[in-house]
Structures are given as C-alpha cells and as structure tokens.
Design a protein that fits this description.
By secondary structure, the protein is of the alpha/beta class. 53% of the residues lie in helices and 11% in strands. It has helices spanning 2-15, 17-25, 86-101, 145-148, 154-157, 167-182, 187-201, 207-213, 223-251, 254-285, 290-297, 301-310, 317-325; strands at residues 43-45, 59-63, 72-79, 105-111, 124-127, 130-133, 135-138. The strands form 2 sheets. Strands 1-2-3-4-7 form a 5-stranded mixed sheet, sandwiched between helices. A two-stranded antiparallel ribbon has the order 5-6. A hairpin with a 2-residue loop joins strand 5 (124-127) and strand 6 (130-133).
C-alpha cells in the first residue's frame, strides 16, 4: 500500500509540477522563493536518476527562470514514515543534483502520515563544520484551504490539518473534499482526483469513512493510480531480473543464470500480484483476519490471478472463505 502511495505521489507531481511547486514554495519558511511564484512561469519535471548506480530522487522540478531569477531546481521527497537517514539522504541528493545541473536547489521533504516521531522535525544535517539544511512539510499541520482551491492538490487536502479533529470533524473534512471533487467539470480529471483522494485518505481515515465519500473501486478506473501500479510492477520485475542475474553469476553456469533470471522475474510478479490482491480484498470483504491473509499469501501465482478476477463479485468475508475452500 505504501509503495503504491509513493508511486501515486510521484505521478501526481509528474501531472501537475507547477501546482505542487507553487504550493510548497508558498508555505511559511520558504519566503525567499516567493519571487518564483507567479502565473506563467515554466515548471518542468526533469529526470530524477542521479547516478550510475541508479539512485533516484522522488521528484525534481526545474524552474525555467527569468531575466532576474536564475534557473532553480525544486527537489521533493514524499515520506509516509520517518526515516533516521533522511538528513544524509538529502545531502547526498543535493550533491548529485548539483554535479548534474549546477543550479540552485531547494529541497523539501513532505511527510504524509501524522506521527509524533521527532524525526519528522529534523531539517538539517550538521557534522562538525558541515551543515546542510532542507525544508520539511508535515502535511497534517498545513492549512487545507490552498490545497482545496486547486483541483490537482485535492488528494493532499484529505490529510491537511487532521490532527486533533473529532470523528464528526473528520467526516466534515472528507465531505468538503468530496464536494470539491464533485465540482470538477472534466469527468476524466474528476475520476483521477477522486482516485487519489481515496488512496491518500487511507493514511489518516478509516476505510469505512473513506468509502462513504469516495466510491469503492474507483482506483481501478484511475489512470494515474494504474500508472503508479504499473511503475511499481516494472520496478518489481527489474528487481527480479537483477536478483536472477546475481544468482546466475554465483552459480557460474549459463543455465544457472537463465534459471535464476526466470525465478527472479516470477518472484517479482508473484509479490506484485499478492500485494494488489491484498489491497483490493478489504474493499470487498472488509478487514481480513490473520488467517485469511496468511491463506492469500500462500496462494501460487495462478490462483492469485484467479482471485483477482473473482473478488470483484465478493460481497463480504464469507465470499472469500468460500473461494479459499474450493
């Protein structure tokens, strides 16, 4: 689930780099960049691969600059969980981006899920005389109004200012977001934004409350979400191929290498199919029991694919139990 959210956030930036950049650079704490925020400025997503060992930043946006403002980069990292290594990672990203582009770089870590961990308040690395600072945005502390005013940012609005709200206030907040989604005139865009709201809201709300305002199964129709899943699948297969190649080289035999590659690819596909089924089942059957989850994880690839088709007709946990008993 968290991997799909990470991929969705990257897809969101790819689709709306200007909206994301202008919101982040307009937040308190980055006033020095206010001069970059104006209609008509050209925000352009650029390649995020930073080195030969294929280390990638989440999103990097290039601001084309003006006669008085030089070209600048906005580097974004989306985090669903705290990461103790984040300061070192941000410094490493900065160095690699500077070597590639030699342009001023503004970095922001966007934390999505509310947490009391002190790690989400760390915004610098300081070791001896070395000091590197970057921006930190905790989404649950942000004013939802700017996000509600831009359709492209409505998925992020679901998680803004949730801290301390009552259950009734949660419902009112999701209802407000749903109303803004319903007001989108373009049906394709409306479906995309609704799918994103459904996905990201899962980091802060119960599934029952989310389903009350956003249609179940809408992610299946979301091109942006499916693109995120496809990217996740592609990476899983590449990782499977890489693991297979390593096993093959260790065997030292050409046949062993071929078998290792095939096994790695199969494992990558198996893991992706398993992950997709376990994400979809709660929408049809409610929260799975521990026994049900173990039974699903034990299924071979062929049965996982069959379950992925059958679960569309499930209407409760009994349907899953009946299917597993066959």
């Amino acid at each position: 689930m968290l991997v799909a959210i990470d991929e969705f956030c990257k897809q969101l930036v790819r689709s709306n780099p200007a909206a994301m950049a202008e919101w982040l650079l307009g937040l308190s704490g980055v006033e020095d960049y206010a001069g970059l925020i104006a209609p008509g400025f050209n925000w352009q997503l650029i390649d995020t691969e930073l080195a030969a060992e294929t280390q990638r930043a989440d999103s990097v946006i290039l601001h084309a600059g003006t006669a008085t403002k030089p070209n600048q980069l906005l580097h974004l990292e989306f985090q669903s969980r705290p990461d103790r290594q984040m300061p070192e990672r941000m410094l490493e990203y900065w160095i690699r981006l500077w070597r590639l582009h030699s342009k001023p770089i503004h970095q922001v870590v966007l934390y999505l899920r509310k947490t009391n961990s002190p790690l989400v308040r760390v915004d610098e690395l300081q070791v001896g005389e070395t000091r590197h600072r970057y921006g930190v945005v905790r989404l649950w502390e942000q004013d939802p109004l700017p996000l509600l005013q831009n359709p492209a940012l409505l998925p992020l609005a679901t998680l803004a200012r949730k801290a301390g709200r009552s259950t009734s206030a949660d419902a009112e907040h999701l209802a407000l977001v749903a109303d803004r989604v319903a007001a989108i005139k373009n049906p394709v865009l409306q479906k995309e934004i609704a799918g994103g709201c459904h996905l990201l809201a899962g980091l802060g709300f119960s599934q029952e409350l989310i389903n009350a305002y956003f249609t179940m199964g809408i992610l299946d129709d979301s091109v942006t979400y499916q693109a995120a899943v496809a990217e996740y699948t592609r990476r899983g297969r590449l990782e499977g191929e890489r693991q297979g190649e390593q096993r093959g080289r260790q065997l030292g035999l050409k046949e062993g290498e071929r078998q290792g590659e095939e096994r790695g690819i199969h494992q990558g596909i198996q893991q992706e199919a398993q992950s997709l089924v376990l994400r979809q089942l709660p929408r049809r059957c409610g929260q799975l029991s521990h026994e049900q989850e173990l039974a699903v994880r034990a299924l071979p690839l062929e049965q996982l694919e069959a379950l992925a088709e059958s679960l569309l007709d499930f209407d409760g946990p009994e349907a899953l139990d009946a299917w597993l008993a066959i």
